[in-house]
Amino acid sequence: MATLLYRLGRLAFRRRRIVLAVWALVSAAVVAGLGVVGEDTDDTFTIPGSESQQALDTLGRVYPAAGGTSAQIVFTAPEGEKATARKFQAGIAATLKEAADAPQVTAVLSPEQTRAVSKDGRSALAQVQYSVSNAELADGSLDALEDTIAPAEKAGLTVSVGGQAYNSTGVDISAKEVVGVVIALIILVITFGSLLAAGMPVLTAVVGVVIGAGGLLLVSHLTAISSTALTLTVMLGLAVGIDYTLFILSRHRDQLKAGMATDESAARAIGTSGSAVAFAALTVIIAMVGLSVVGIPFLTAMGLAGAGGVAIAALVALTLLPALLGFAGDRLRPRPKKKPAPGGRTAPQQTLGARWVHTVTRIPALTVVLVTAGLLVVAWPARDLRLALPDNGSAAQGTTQRETYDTISEEFGPGLNGPLLILMNTDDAKASSAAQLTAELNTVRKELAATKGVALASAAQRLDPEYALLTVVPTTGSGDEATKDLVKALRDKESPIRSRTGISLQVTGQTAVNVDVSQKLSDSLLTFAIVVVGLCLLILLIVFRSLVVPVKATVGFLLSVAASFGAVVAVFQWGWAADLIDVARTGPVVSFLPIILMAVLFGLAMDYEVFVVSSIHEEYAHGGDARRAVLTGSPLAFRVVTAAALIMVAVFAGFVTMQDAIVKPIAFALAFGVLVDAFLIRMTFVPAVLMWVGRAGWWLPRGLRKILPNVDIEGRDLPKPPAQPSGTPATASERD
């Protein structure tokens, strides 16, 4: 691999104008394409083949009004008055009339029809039905609905609009989220001491994000892509795009400092650090593509989108960066304060990194125990991890959907925010007459109403000769464990009811779909974890040809993941420091956070593992003393890994500011996970373990040595750099 990338780097350096033109044309084509066709994201969560989705598809076919999304209008009278008072009726009627004429609305049910009036009469609820799903709502449809509330407000009522139609309104990236890039630039300036060098990682990352995210938006016209997938692609693209360039550029400047020619240094940096980047990117891509094994379309799309963003970031770093190095030439060469030692890089003995490594490896067993125990304590809250998909109760305070959700929960009970639909197939009913069938349906309704956790079961509505529909309102909210238990209990009643009456039941509605999605994700988590851990062991076994290195890396990865889960539970469920990051509501964590976190953190952890361990292994290969290699090799990676981790944390932390119940906890978990993995695992736990085991850390059974392929990511097979006359390093222009 190193030799191939070495040649690629040299070619890109020498043909830099062509390389730059190609990337500029690709970027321009993507931007132009977006200008012509725009975007078409879809934030619908579905599981094709599940009971809830099958029933929704049937509803959409036989009764389109019930198969589409819906909105709610809540009318609240002033304190001490009733919304049903005569003086408010004209305003309510005018609002409902305008709502019926709003775009894509097929039906409007008044408070009298829904019978949804609070016990004190102060609040009343109207239902607005659409014939299309959330994803198919046209731009401006919800805005038009919100404009209809003016007559009721003029009458003196407080009016809010919310409901299922507002559940997925998309994720918008603002300037606040990009503040992480500014922080990254500051870190790069401090790291390199050069504005030119600091600007390169940001430039390449932006190019990668423009192409990756823009291409994803173009693909959204061909397949369903969620706005969350887009946000994840931008987050990953910025983070790894900056880090990959940082790793390669740091190596290039070290070699320039040692007197190497610019073209040779660029090619060698791509061959060595570029090999590590390619390997690290491959691990992220494999983990993200692995999300497809879960079998949920929106998660598959999210994984493929993230993998595509990482692949583009790596490709930019391996081709565009050496071209830019050619344009920069000798201007990137640092001015050493003292004459460098022959042979290139030497480990600094008095740096912070060197002092840190000496400290943590002084009593390595104690360091390993303390780090492990400390992270297990942080991970302890993870035992209480609860998963669900977010609803409007997770929306930002002050939004119309949050106000509607809170009012309904307070006045009507939380279950009305997430009712269940029971689709009944009467085609095989045993009733011999229409009257007998009506009686049987009523009996079924009473049986369902008597189920623990049911607040209300409406009368069955005949949709056509074959199907009937009734609504079940739970006593608890859509994300509560009790609601999940209720869905299971209702489904358990299907078999005895069908045996007795011939009527089959399917539990559906958005709440049931969310329950099915969460259950599917929970069931897939262990399998996915085994796949990721297995990949971790296999890949590191091949790269470093050692048994201890992959086992140590896997244990460290699991500790980082567990600690991240614990931090997420403490903040987003228990509410610790929740106000500091403006968490809208504490409660269950978004269902796919564990799988996303494991996939992304796995790849990022392998980034740091490769750069730290390869530095140690390089010193070990040259000197032969395993423990001394830890002391001299680890500090060589400390500065770059520290900068890379801080940049990644800054980028992810920028997205924690988003008022989105999906993105916020994922960004927090990634920021916390990277912080823990880089500093406590890779720069503390890893050197301590390798110091503790000594030479055994590089042992591999003879049988495995013969079987495993020999992968060179350290540049052992690269040709030796040509000797340069002292004090006359070749410049880029001289090499053209």
TrEMBL record:
Q: Where is this region: Disordered?
A: 715-736
In terms of Pfam families, this protein maps to:
MMPL
> SUPFAM superfamilies annotated for this entry?
Multidrug efflux transporter AcrB transmembrane domain
Spell out where the chain crosses the membrane.
178-198, 205-223, 229-249, 270-298, 304-329, 363-382, 525-544, 556-576, 588-606, 636-656, 668-693
Predominant localisation class: membrane
Q: Might you report a single GO cellular component term?
A: plasma membrane
Q: Where is the composition biased (Polar residues)?
A: 725-736
Please report the stretch or stretches of sequence annotated as the SSD domain. Answer: 202-327
Report membrane topology.
Multi-pass membrane protein
Please name the InterPro entries in this protein's record: MMPL_dom (IPR004869), Mycobact_MmpL (IPR050545), SSD (IPR000731)
Query: Which keywords fit this entry according to its UniProt record?
Result: Cell membrane, Membrane, Transmembrane, Transmembrane helix
Localization per Swiss-Prot or TrEMBL: Cell membrane
* Name assigned to this protein: MMPL family transporter
The organism is Streptomyces aquilus
